[in-house]
Amino acid sequence: MARLADYFLVVGYDLEKRGGGEGQGRILQRFPEKDWEDNPFPQGIELFCQPNGWQLDAERLPPSFFVSVLTDINSERHYCACFTFWEAVDNPQLQKEDPSEVDEDEGPGDLHPAQLYAPKSLVVVSRLDHTEVFRNCLGLIYTVHVDGLNVPMETVIGNLLTCTIPIAGGSQRTITLGAGDRQVIQTPINDSLPVSGCSVSQLFRQLGIVNVLYLFCAALTEHKILFLSSSYQRLTDGCRALLAIMFPLKYSFTYVPILPGKLLEVLSTPTPFIIGVNSFFRSETQDLLDVIIADLDGGTVTIPECVHISLLPEPLLQHTQTVLSMVLDPELEVADHAFPPSSLQPSTQKIQDKEIRGVFLWLFAQLFQGYRWCLHIIRIHPEPVIRFHKAAFLGQRSQAEDDFLTKVLDGMAFARFVSERGPPYRPTDLFDDLVANQVKRIRQEEAMPRKVLHHIKELAEPLFKNENPYPAVAMHKVQRPGDAPQTRPSATPTSACFPHLDETTVQLFIDHANAKLNGAPPIVRPEIQNLVPSGPTLVEFVDRVGTALANSARRLEVVRNCINYIFDNKMLEAKKLMPAVLRALKGRAARVCLTQELNQHVLQNRAVLDDQQFDYVVRMMNCTLQDCSHMDEHGIAAALLPLVTAFCRKLGGGITQFAYSCVQEHMVWTNMQFWEAMFYSDVQKHIRSLYLETEEGDSTSADQEAVSLTSELSALELASEQSRLWPTLTKELQQERVQKEESTVFSQAIHYANRMSYLLLPLDTSKNRLLRNTGLGDIESVSNSYLTNSITGSMAESYDTESGFEDAETSDVANSVVRFINRFVDKVCNESGVTNDHLKALHTMIPDIVQMHIETLDAVHRESKRLPPIQKPKLLRPILLPGEELVMDGMRVHLVSDGREEATGLMGGPPLLPAEGAIFLTNYRLIFKGTPNDPLVGEQVVTRSFPVASLTKEKRIQVTLPMEQFLQDGLQLRSCTFQLMKVAFDEEVASDLAEVFRKHLHKLRYPQHVQGTFAFTVGQSAKLVVEHKTKDKNQSLKTLSKNLVKTAKRTIGRQYVTRKKYTPPTWENRSSLPSELDEDEISVCEEPDQSSLTLSSTIRSSDRQTMSNVVERACCRDYQRLGLGTLSNSLTRSKNEPFRISTVNRMYTVCRSYPGLLIVPQSVPDSTIQRISRCYRQNRFPVVCWRNSRTKAVLLRSAGHNAKGVVGFFKSPNAPTAGPSQADSTSLEQEKYLQAIVSSMPSYSEATGRNTLSGFTSTHMSSSDSSDKLRQPKIGALMKQVMGGREDMPGTFSRGALGQKARVVSLTPPRVSANRTPRGKWGSIRGSGRLSAYNPDVGNRLAKDSPQPNGGPADTFFRQQRAYLYIIGDKAQLKGGKQDSFQQWELVPIEVCDVRQVKNSFKKLMKACVPSSSTSDPSMSFHRCLEESEWMCLLHKVLQVSVLVVELLDSGSSVMVSLEDGWDVTTQVVSLVQLLSDPYYRTFDGFRLLVEKEWLSFGHRFSHRGGQTLASQSSGFTPVFLQFLDCVHQIHLQFPMEFEFSQYYLKFLAYHHVSNRFRTFLLDSDYERIELGVLYEEKGERKNPQVCKTVWDYIERLNKKTPILFNYMFAPEDEEVLKPYSFISNLKVWDFYTEETLAEGPSFDWELARGRQERVAEDSAAERPETQPKSQRRVVWPCYDNCERVTPDAITKLLLEVHALEQELGQLSDKWKDTWDKVKTTQRTETKLESRHSFSSSLLMSSNLSHQRRSQGVYLQESGVGSSINLSMDCEASAGSTPAAGRTSTSTLYSQFQSTESENSILYKKGALLKPWKPRWFVLDKTKHQLRYYETRKDKECKGMIELAEVEAVIPSMHTMGAPKQIEEKAFFDLKTTKRVYNFCAEDSQNAVLWMDSIQSCLSDA
Length: 1902
Prior knowledge:
By secondary structure, the protein is α+β, with helices and mostly antiparallel strands.
């Protein structure tokens, strides 16, 4: 029984304390005045009576009622029912006589009412929540007061305070307060179920389903929730409803349904809450950042951005919403029905309320089903202590990742749920029944909403009945106040005041009732306690989900077999299965299977293994634990815990090593929650067996075993039984049981202290793993990043600096472990009630346990070091080059697979990677050499290497492999030779060693100076890598270079002498600050007088020696070959030569990055050159580098103009100026310089007769050079492509620049003579690359057909002519220049790819070709990445510009390429132009000369662009030279017969230009090479003949030994100009970027490859027994073998066989080249002797091929007779007498097997019946066995064909009607086929005979 009301109060407005602000309330009277002992009086009630504040009002407000809830310090809730009415008081303002007393804020005009009304509250405080009863009682008291009923008020209040009612039990009590009233109170049947009335359904109506679900999830996951409403009662109901739907969980945080305005700061509390606030304070809640606000009046829920609410897991959320919708809106389902049922009305509000609660009960039953199976009972007596195993619960439901459930289980509400509902023997309620007995039903009905609804209505019934046990009773009789009590005239304001009550009378009532209560016997309602049913286990429905069955039975079989093999000592079998087992262990079922299988091999808690067995078992354990999370939700670590202390091996000296020392490094061991769960489950087992023993002490051991194998249910059952018996036991027995349980827990605590020390103390206690691992520092830390492990357990990583332990001593390890175990012991012992004495004993014991274990471990560690190491593969030593030395010996690593899938076995073939081996660092290369991990390919050797100098990026990575051991950190090394090494260091490699490796690598990659590179240090010891003082190779040369520099300084003048020696970084400064430094250079050059700058007798002898060396350089040899000038001893030159070799730069004073000798126009003196040079960036003024031998047009190169720009120079050269300035004179000199170049051209001189502008107009007007007019359209189209024509829409791909059909018109048709073959080979332009859409006003002379906007007719006329000089410049520089139509040069602005663009493109290309990790993302596929890199676009641009320049040169115009600084794109373009125009450069010698001249002498910055030294490290790698080689490769692909060298030669250069093996590509200019004394070194004697200093020497030697660099198809044509297709569709990805040879590494260091070959041959010879037949077959793996070597082409193979035969016969073998030349000569002779040579007459070696494009597998032959079908790509007539038919349709697959006897000419053919004779072009194709005919010779489309297989006969015929006239009789013949007869007529009888013979021979051949 409980009091209905604890306290009654009268609270009124405090008139005395009213200040200027708001008023206060005070308690006027309180009954009883003394606190109840069991229920102290709650403080601060007056605040809650008027939550908005106490205020007077001008009007009398109607009485109000609401219930506040207060929570006391013991978490008890007090319900304060507050009834407020208003009483009249005098206006205090009117009593202020003195005006000064009037408040300032009230104006004098304000009118004050004479009377105000003050609130007064009647309050009942109760612990029972009977809102309606309180409303009626307080209303009655008010009625008694107002209506003046003749009942003493004290009696009514006394009766109220003395009324007692039962708390629960479903009873019914009638109460009366003695004022003629009667009320019936129904108590709920079960007080554990909340009472909600209609509040839940009302909340859903106010907010809607989704909003309430948000609030529900927010409350469960402990967020802050604030309700807003203008009604206090609605706030209380809303909060009550939210608590009701949370059942069976109880809200444990701050709960204030109505918060007074004065306490609003409570909303800033950091803890979760559910609070209600009046809407009046809405504005003050706006700035709450982490509070969810539910507005009950507006129906909205506002969730702040920073708050994330975890929602119910799907599909549960969806199901819940569906069912709620069916309850709240049953009509929704049938809303669309044509005939909806009429009866579908929602339930009444009270019943609907219970149905909604039923939905949430059903929801919780699904969320918590099976929870009782995860309860651990750790004490039964004196009180049950129960813990919940969260990890197991989540794991069994496969919801470990579910955010919502995890948060709910971690919350306080669930902790309370476990402590209240955990005990197995207690009263049960609706939820217990639901979760135990109806889970099956819930699962079956899950997907059937109608059945679910039916179930929910069933659940709603008991909920409704609980609140309304007697629904029929309605005997209420409560009086209400009369209608208008205020209007009674007798009532004055004072008399209407609530009367002062007599305390004594009320107190007497209370005392009297108390005495009566004490005298009465206590009513004891027995609580029915019983065993709480557990319901079905979780496993039952997890299997249904299928997660447990994810692993197929086959995988489990593999695990079982492997374990059996291990214990049967069949190690080879086990090794084969191991990779499959490690893969299978990713699945949970396989891991469980592993623990079960291993358990079977443990006998009496011990299993002694040999080393190899131990290794395998540990490896499997590690792999199993690796994928376990720190929570161990599947119980794998728990199952392994007893096993790791069971499996062991014997070491020397009687020492045993257990498995735990090798499986320590997993996060799970440092997770406190894991240890607690393990401890509790073990304690439960022991307590269970304790009671089983006591009950069955006399039973046999077999019975005990049977009992212990019963299901886990029996643990809770036992506890329930014991709890039931507990009251019946004697005190002694009770005490005994408590002690037994306590000592069980204590012994387990000792056991676990030992276990934890096993797994937390590392084998090598000097390596304090735990201090780094925050898991030990912080109980709650559960990060899962630490998963690496090693077999020996040793760790070699730096300690976590945050822990503050840098060099941890053993004691620190011990301390940290002791602290961790102490924390664990404190927690579990306090929870499980261990006595303080025992706890102290434990704390004393733990340090001893740890110390003892450390001593044991030291011995184990010492012995384990003596063990022979695990059989790891032997480290293979790499072959080194002569002069290459190891900087660091091999470190054992694993080479991990990257994004290339070829070697991983995914694309077929064996998995070569991952491989185990060692990484070696030499002074030249980084080499990995090892063997694949896969046992099936374990005999192969895997090699991957790249030059240290080519390293572009190095980063640390973490690598975890499903392998034998877990690995430590790794490195990812990327090289610009398109190689990537991902290595993971083995555990035997100490981390400091890895760090040393990185430092050495960095030092070698970026030496201080270029002299630290391998090319310089080769042959010296590696120690001298950094010092370079001792490296003077040739003292005399060194002196020479010093003298040269001295002379240069003297020549320049005094200013220069103070400068320091030139160092490479100057270039960086220079490019960043061009203006200042260029100014400086100019001022330096001005001082000396002009005479000293010409080569004269003033040069000393040493300098003359240098000069002669300069003459020998490549440039000079080439200039002489081109006839650009000679340098005789007397330095006299013929004056009529247009160009001369200038020595103005002999001391590198004019331009440091140019060569010493330059070609300039004859007429320009050196002094002018010096001045002109200042106008160009880096002083790189225009110089001639090549001359077309036919048109005499010259190619010039220079840098772009200085910042002033070319625009000022060209805008108006003849404009009048105020006075002659230096700038004008320079511009004038520049113009003269260009004019001199123009004048030097023969075409100009011929046309004008004299070098003036006067003849310019007339020449052009009378120009009769037909080639110009014919050539015009082609160049125009090209120019448009390069500059971007107006017709091209911006950003679109144009369909070929020549119109829609993209037909190719020859650029150079026959000039005058008809017999000349057309020069140039053209490719098809099938599609175009991305063209610029920029249309400048300059450079349009050729590019447009329409007149310029600003030009007149004359302009148009001149535009049809071509300029004598085209200047290819950067668009950005040439903008806005005005073109003068009378000038002889023209600007062609183009967009240049910036160096940064090339760099970025190259990075993306590398990532595309060599990705670091494999991905299935389609946006990261190879072709997509290749496209995004835009590498092909860059190639397209360079090739396009080059082809344009070739065209212009070939048409007789000179071209000056003047782009950027003149050393990147300019070099690419001029080199390609020369390569395309001049066949000489396509030979070995020529290509070498081209690279030496254009790239080396003209100062391409190899060191800077390749980042070869520390100084250029920041600039990164920019592959300008590689881009050039790629362009050459593209041309080579299109014209395979034009190059003497092979594709391998290009790859060789691409590899070695970054390898730093040779000195050729070091340094940035000749000046730097001279300064270091390396430029002419090769001319002197070499000390070490083994070491080649230059790449060219090496290539020369290599070419003598092997034909690999030679192109067998080399058959050049005289004076051939190549014009490749440059569109992206014509370009191919260079296989240099993608190919790899894992068998031997890159094949570009030939000595290594040769050494390897010889060894392999010896090995195979040694292995093969004599008797064994020699097999000719072998498997070739594309990514492993060097295919070129393993499967050589026919010619190479024949040459090798010839060589082998010669050696066998003991002859002196010829060089391969001699053999080849002999064969070729013989071949030619034979060809001449044969009259009709067949196809065998060397397809490859014929040097007189027809002048057509020979590319991409289309090889043609020219016939001696005049009847070959000529497969031309172009459509103009071929040479001489050959009647060639150019048609692409025949140049298909068959064209390479073209027979020479095919016939083709015009025949007249008679049509079908009544059709005329028509001439057709007939082609007899013997290969395809067809006679085809075309409309005309030029036609591509075949009109028809006659299959020769169908021809029966060919016979002469007669002249028929309608046949062509003037044709002799014998020219007719018929062709009879199986279908019809064809009539033909040839041009003459001779031709007819020829045709008949040809067809007949075809038929007879067939």
